Amino acid sequence: MSEKVSAKVDAKKETKRILFGLIGAVIMAVNIKTFVRAGGLYPGGFNGVTLLFQTICDRFFDITVPFSPISLALNAIPAIISFKAIGKKFTVVTSCMIVATSILTDIVPAVPITEDILLISIFGGLINGAAISISLIGGTSTGGTDFIAIYFAEKKNKDVWNYILLGNAVVLIIAGFLFGWDKALYSIIFQYTSTQMIHLLYQNYKKVTLFVVTENAEAVYQAISEVTNHSATEFSATGMYSNEKRKMIYSVVSTVEAKMLTRKVMEADAHAFVNIVKTDTLLGRFYQENNY
């Protein structure tokens, strides 16, 4: 790839990163002012900690604290770690998104859509998860605990969103103890809905195992290599009904790659038999494209 083409690809990637990050920041800020604060919820992560701190200052000390300085202070340490461990461009753009979200949260007017706390919990969670997913798909994030999740996904190849959900329980216990357990329990619905939305929309780190029985093993392998940059393992096989010799290709790919790869495999061998199995645990060397 020439330097000119490479620069063009990089520019397109960074434009996408910034655009998706801005969209996520706007959605996150509007969601906080429209749903989260209207329901008195605590969304988890550093936004939840910030809102909890604001509420404590307001209720017990009669002090109104702006969202921005608290949020930025809490995100500072994870951002420094992310800069070193994940990627400079990713961290810089994410930091800009954190600033944008913080400022927008302070200036966007509060316009509650409904007073039904259950509807606020469910739809607020869905929108929150969508905002996080849009940012992640674009190659950035909304900051805070996203830094932690992406670090483990990149370095440890682990999905830790559910563990982060458990970690948020500490914030909810404090909120429940201080301000009533009803809001804390509704916040659990909010966070659970948000986490499931992320699992639905963002699938880059979900893995599947691909089994392909074929007569054209080399063409199938070339398709796997071109689409995913992964290698594969070839087994000799025999059809029990026909007693004909076949080859079975085994490979592990991401869920996103599997959709395109299945089409390519069938183009390489229209008579191939393809079986895709969900992979929960994977040990050993596995190529993971770094989008950060």
From TrEMBL:
Subcellular localization, as worded in the UniProt entry: Cell membrane
Protein name as catalogued: DUF2179 domain-containing protein
Residues spanning the membrane: 18-40, 60-83, 90-111, 117-139, 160-179
Organism: Blautia hansenii DSM 20583
Presence of the UniProt keyword Transmembrane helix in the record: yes
Keyword terms, alphabetized: Cell membrane, Membrane, Transmembrane, Transmembrane helix
Main location class: membrane
Keyword Transmembrane helix appears in the UniProt entry: yes
UniProt domain DUF2179: residue ranges: 230-284
Record-linked InterPro entries: DUF2179, N-reg_PII/ATP_PRibTrfase_C, UPF0750_membrane, YitT
Highest taxon of the lineage: Bacteria
Pfam families assigned: DUF2179 (PF10035), YitT_membrane (PF02588)
Membrane-protein topology: Multi-pass membrane protein
